[in-house]
Amino acid sequence: MPSTHDFGFPMQSLDWASWVPVLDLDRATPNEIKVLEESHPKAKENPYYLLLVQEAEVLRQRSKLFNTIMYGPRGASRAERELAATAESRLNGCPYCASVHALRYVQMKGDPDLMARLMEQGVDTPMEPRPRAIVDFAVKLAATPSAATEADIARLREQGLEDAQILDIAMSVAMFANANRLMQTLGEAVMPQDAAP
Amino acid sequence: MRDLLDELAGIQPGSRLDGLRALRPDVRAAVAGSEAAIFEGESGLTTEERHAVAQAVAEWNDEPALAAHHAARAAASPRLPALLAHAEMLTKRPDQATPAAVQALAEAGLAPRDVVMLSQLVAHMNFMARMLATFRLLERA
């Protein structure tokens, strides 16, 4: 059976192609333009957002949720939110999501080796105890929410995470349970035309 | 401002979980806003269809309170089986998505905008289920 895993998980910027007709930007209403601008700096050039903006108010609320969960100040570090998002995207098989967030993690935290292995080998690749605790929790909550247990929370606390930070990590996982399902099922990752193989 | 998650998770004002949630007030506002946009917005999908799909996704995620919330306003329609089949794949096996699956929705009469609404609805319910599971864990741990 074909799987979205089959594309592989290259650690480079990818493009995304929609399987569903997207909005023609020339015909966008002022409200649609506003929602695109609120959603992402490059949303007006991105087929993913041009697709989703056809339900403008749903996208407006979702972008607000996404941006506060992934980029809101304080709490869990942005790198650790990205780590959880990348592990889940790798597990679910969303190459586009995984590459975006793996690259963002490296940008913020360094450690390209960890991300390269996570992308190539998957979520079981060896790592230090703190990222391990985050990835293990993320993977369980991603796959079957009830599979995550108090023991996973205890491990995160042992690694020095406060409950507010644990909630941030969990919200990142919840958000990517959402994001992966949109990206994976409404279109697919494609190699950029100008990229080296 | 309180949202559906507070209600279903039984988060009392002034409790420890209420305090943790208060650190990110935009999450509550956007959850409430998403609920309104997805379930009350104008759409080619009927309100009853949207609640029926939401109920099923909550059940697949083992969230009975969330399922019961939607069951009250759910009702079947001739094309509901096609909507549920797509929702089940999105929820349980998102890596098996294909252009043909999207095409099947078009053949069931869904406009592109309706496909977006259905996908957003299923994605949102998968978000909600993980939030509820997290609140239970943090309450107990």
Distance between the termini of chain B: 26 Å
Number of helices of chain B: 8
Cα radius of gyration of chain B in angstroms: 16 Å
The major pleated sheet of chain A works out as: 2 strands, antiparallel
- The total count of strands of chain A amounts to 2
Distance from N terminus to C terminus of chain A (CA atoms, Å) equals: 25 Å
The CATH homologous superfamily of the largest domain in chain A is called AhpD-like
Shape of chain B: elongated
Q: What is the chain-wise order of helices and strands of chain B?
A: HHHHHHHH
Q: Helical amount among residues of chain A, as a percent range?
A: 55-70%
Q: What amount of the residues of chain B lies in strands?
A: under 5%
- The class by helix and strand makeup of chain B works out as mainly alpha
Q: Which fold name corresponds to the CATH topology of the largest domain in chain A?
A: AhpD-like
Give the C-alpha Rg of chain A.
Answer: 17 Å
Residue stretches of chain A low in confidence (pLDDT < 50, at least 5 long) are none
In CATH, the architecture of chain B is: Up-down Bundle
Q: Catalogue the unreliable spans of chain B.
A: none
**CATH first level of the largest domain in chain A:** Mainly Alpha
CATH architecture title of the largest domain in chain A: Up-down Bundle
| Total DSSP helices of chain A | 9
What number of domains of chain A? 2
Pfam family, one (chain A): CMD
Domain Carboxymuconolactone decarboxylase-like (chain A): 57-123
Protein name (chain A): Putative peroxidase-related enzyme
Keywords (chain A): Oxidoreductase, Peroxidase
